[in-house]
From TrEMBL:
This is Putative 2-aminoethylphosphonate ABC transporter substrate-binding protein. Residues 1-23 form the signal peptide. Keywords: Signal. It holds the Pfam family SBP_bac_6. It comes from Vibrio superstes NBRC 103154.
Length: 334
């Protein structure tokens, strides 16, 4: 009996020591990825890297960018993964992102990456805006189908449109930037003032306006093309429309604190395996060997706005202040 007790105690001690020896190193990763895909990315990474665990900290693009800037002198994140390229450019300029060359960089589409010679961020995917138009609600309200941005400023749509607040949503900010860059400053602000008359509310999530349109809470949501395609595939009565000058941007990864575990997160995030997950939702991804057709995804390429991402990053604070001063009164409560 005594020998059995000793053997049992030793076995428990060995098991405990083994558990401690192989406890996963936790990496804090800041992200603006949609919440419903985080578990999938975490599980796939940890399956490939069982000795590293991801601790997600998630919020919308604007809030996450502000958080990273506020923590500049005492960074809490180790990796930023799934944040807009314009935000990444700003974080690099502020010294928050560190130059790093991940393994497998040669397999990526260069146009989605940091364009500077000392690179610090790399595109995972490209995401696009769209207009989610509820055909059932529109028929009930006798609303015509819009085909251009100018259409959405017509009085017939008053109170029937939702769009993301650009100060808290990257989806919103990239469309505001697209209007300003492609219409010109004066015409862009004039257009947004006209559109504002038709806005029911501004949301703090990029996907929410499309979700609301899909549920019939509004007739029209200026939102994410990928969310519109997904909802339409699930049966929502949506037409996913891409007016000429649709906003788009890359979603990217970058290193904040250098460590073996953090670098492995960055390396894996640009891998073919990771890109095969991105392409389930985004038809344009960073890896050259990964492509797919997403059901009901609109033909965005013919209507893409010309986007200067460095300008988006540099002008962000001024544009958001002006926008908030003019239009924030219709934003949903946070």
């Amino acid at each position: 009996m005594k020998n059995r007790f000793v053997k049992s105690s030793l076995a428990a001690l060995v098991a405990m020591m083994a558990t401690n020896a192989f406890a996963a190193t936790e990496v804090t990763v800041y992200t603006a990825f949609e919440a419903d895909i985080l578990a999938k990315y975490k599980n796939a990474f940890e399956k490939a890297n069982p000795d590293v665990a991801i601790n997600w900290v998630r919020d919308s693009t604007g809030i996450m960018t502000a958080k990273l800037l506020a923590e500049k002198n005492n960074p809490q994140a180790e990796v930023v993964w799934g944040l807009a390229g314009s935000s990444m450019a700003l974080l690099k300029e502020e010294g928050i992102l560190k130059p790093y060359t991940p393994k497998g960089l040669e397999n990526l589409h260069a146009e989605l990456n940091d364009p500077q010679s000392t690179q610090a961020w790399y595109g995972n995917d490209a995401f696009f805006n769209a207009v989610c138009f509820n055909e059932v609600v529109a028929k009930q309200l006798d609303l015509p189908k819009p085909t251009s941005w100018e259409d959405l400023a017509k009085p017939v749509y008053q109170g029937h449109i939702a769009m993301p607040n650009p100060a808290s949503s990257g989806t919103g900010y990239m469309q505001v930037s697209a209007w300003l860059q492609n219409m010109g400053e004066d015409k862009g602000w004039d257009y947004m003032a006209q559109l504002h008359q038709n806005i029911a509310h501004y949301t703090h999530s990029g996907s929410k306006p499309c979700v609301q349109a899909g549920m019939g809470e509004v007739a029209i949501g200026i939102s994410m093309a990928s969310r519109g395609a997904k909802l339409k595939t699930q049966g929502a009565p949506l037409d996913v429309i891409t007016p000429a000058g649709i906003g788009w941007e890359s979603e990217a990864v970058g290193l904040v604190k250098a460590s073996d575990a953090a670098q492995r997160v960055v390396d894996w995030s640009i891998s073919k395996e990771a890109n095969e997950l991105y392409v389930e939702m985004y038809p344009v991804v960073g890896h050259k060997d990964v492509e797919a057709v997403v059901s009901n995804f609109p033909n965005v390429q013919q209507n893409m706005a010309n986007m200067d991402f460095a300008r988006m990053g540099n002008e962000r604070a001024d544009v958001l202040k002006t926008w908030s001063d003019k239009f924030d009164g219709k934003s949903e409560a946070k």
